[in-house]
Design goal:
This protein is mainly alpha-helical. It has one domain. 78% of the residues lie in helices and 0% in strands. The chain has twelve helices and no strands. Helix 2 packs across helix 9 and helix 3 packs across helix 8. It is globular, with a radius of gyration of 19 Å. 39% of the residues are buried.
Length: 279
């Protein structure tokens, strides 16, 4: 999980670096082509069954959510300090609480409501909304966190009946198709080093998912999930060294509040599952 956090921070830094010249949609489109290239042997081998599903609506939702989450999240990474953009992504755990109430019918008690509100206060401290000077990119980062939470909620529905290969294929095909139009419209001819970097970004994302799965296999999610917050430390260090971004006291304060509230939420969810009750 620690390695996954480091890979995630490095990948974010590469996206920020290459995004200074190459449009985000182009980066995503080329990255998705790489993902499809990896999935192609599986699709060819199981083409008669891989697209069979009784939950097409949820696949469409997941694909749409993924496209929005990637586009908004990558754009925020390019234009915001690395530490700030990374800290806001942790709000996904808070959004999951809200979405679980609406879509999964979960019952949430006073303590979880309180800690969720406190967590969003931490987000507001980082964003520092101002009517005269709205930070659009911070709002995009927050929107990305919302749709990532939505992806996780939809995935809970899909994973109950759908095989992983079908879930991955539907998302990959959909996201590639969605990104194609904007990517071709905004196309900037990349240099070969830039193409190589985009391929590396795709490889790092796959590697991060793989090592994270290995970490979750080795220990309970509640035990290893807090390690993910090391990504903020790695992102802060890379931001200082590579991009000369010194985190403000607002970023540090808000990050600590978000981390504290999400860790509490993770612990409460784990205890609730163990006791089989809503808290």
């Amino acid at each position: 999980m620690l390695l996954a956090s480091l890979i995630g921070a490095v990948m974010a830094a590469l996206i920020k670096f290459i995004g200074q010249r190459i449009p985000v949609f182009e980066i995503l489109f080329v990255r998705q082509l790489c993902v499809l290239a990896v999935l192609t042997p599986v699709i060819v081998r199981t083409h008669r069954t891989i697209f069979r599903t009784k939950m097409l609506r949820f696949h469409l939702m997941r694909g749409g959510f993924a496209a929005i989450a990637m586009a908004t999240g990558f754009t925020a990474l390019v234009h915001m300090p690395l530490a700030e953009a990374t800290a806001i992504t942790f709000a996904k755990t808070l959004f999951m609480t809200l979405l679980a109430i609406v879509f999964l019918g979960e019952v949430v008690g006073v303590r979880r409501w309180s800690v969720t509100i406190i967590g969003f206060i931490g987000v507001m401290i980082i964003i520092r909304p101002d009517a005269d000077n709205v930070n659009v990119y911070a709002l995009l980062a927050l929107l990305s966190s919302l749709f990532v939470a939505g992806i996780i909620i939809v995935l809970k529905k899909l994973s109950a009946t759908e095989p992983p290969s079908t879930i991955m294929t539907y998302q990959s095909v959909m996201v590639t198709a969605i990104m194609a139009g904007p990517a071709l419209y905004l196309w900037v001819m990349p240099t070969w080093p830039e193409v190589a970097l985009i391929v590396v970004i795709g490889g790092l994302m796959s590697m991060m998912q793989w090592v994270m799965i290995q970490g979750l296999k080795a220990a309970e999610a509640v035990a290893v999930a807090p390690v993910e917050y090391a990504r903020l430390l790695f992102a802060t260090a890379i931001g200082i060294v590579v991009f000369q971004e010194i985190p403000t006291v607002w970023t540090i304060t808000g990050s600590l509040i978000i981390i504290g509230s999400t860790l509490y939420t993770i612990r409460r969810n784990a205890k609730r599952k163990q006791r089989g009750e809503a808290t």
